[in-house]
Amino acid sequence: MAAHIYNAERLDHFMARVNTQYYAETPFLSDFITAPEISQVFGELLGAWAITVWQGMGSPAKLILAEAGPGRGTLMADALRVITRQAPDMAKALTVHLVETSPRLRQVQAKILHAYAQPVWHKHVNDIPAGPMILLANEFLDALPVRQFIQTSTGWHEHYVADKALELISCAAPSLPDGRTLQPDTVVEICEQAQHIVRDLAHRFLHSPGVALFIDYGHDTNSTGDSLQALRHARPTPPLQAEEGEADLTTHVDFTALLAVARKAEVATYGTEDQGDFLRHLGIMERTEQLASHANPQDAAMLRSATNRLVAPEKMGHLFKVMALASPTLPTPPGFMKGPVA
Fold this sequence. Notes:
The chain is of the alpha/beta class. The protein has a domain at about 25-145 and about 190-220 and about 250-325: Vaccinia Virus protein VP39 (Rossmann fold, 3-Layer(aba) Sandwich). It is about 40% helix and about 25% strand. It has helices at about 10-25, 35-40, 40-55, 75-85, 90-95, 105-115, 190-205, 255-265, 275-280, 285-290, 295-310, 315, and strands at about 10, 65-70, 95-100, 120, 135-140, 145-150, 155-160, 165-170, 190, 210-220, 230, 235, 250, 255, 270-275, 320-325. β7 (about 155-160) and β8 form a beta hairpin. The chain starts with 8 loop residues before the first strand and ends in a 16-residue tail after the last strand.
């Protein structure tokens, strides 16, 4: 099993390399569409959400409004439009920080956001400077690289990639932060980078007021399994067959593990909520009807169809989950009906 160890590449390293080139070279949204691009209401609701969170922080005179994985900048533009109109004092207090590694996407973001802000860009979440912060992250975690492990009759092994196929390399037994029992002959995915981000944010929020909101497709169960998938030319493609820069590699986010990391760091955790429930709590149906009432019949139908796509359980409403981390002294963020989870 170790025959190809010298020319094999660990799966998370393979994912990171392929995705870095993909986002640097492929036009955004050529293979998939994200919630902010489906409906302006999505970003508007998160802008209103951020206003309430800022007020719950005591309306600090200086605020970092950050987004990880901002895509074209559509979500931030929609949010800032609402903030500028409804909370001008907040608009004056904030600076916009974006976690984005692609030079091409940074140019697109600068163009879309120029009317509202002059963003400051960072390569990593922990590069964002100190101070009160609200962080938005929609479909960010799913693109972070994962390691895959499996227990066979000969012990634990890790997946490596060699010659566009998986290679099993012997390794020590993995563990997940929630301590779940790992079943034999079942792939276990661990996203170390996501765990580091959550841990760093938790430590930050213990010393400085802040809230981070994560929206992504994934699960909040104790299940494990292989969820690696790829899109090429808007169609599913075998992940390991992807040429560098030609496919978007993602996995389902393990929210159970990430919430466990945050709780161990003693930060307040919220969720998960289904995206459909979360958006309904924030008023997506009411806002959609408000816009539809001033639109022509064709546009009104498109607005309602877009909202249905975001909230319907059989579409994005159930598959996408919402999680938040917050400083323990802050009130429950909007949209989370259960309060903090112990």
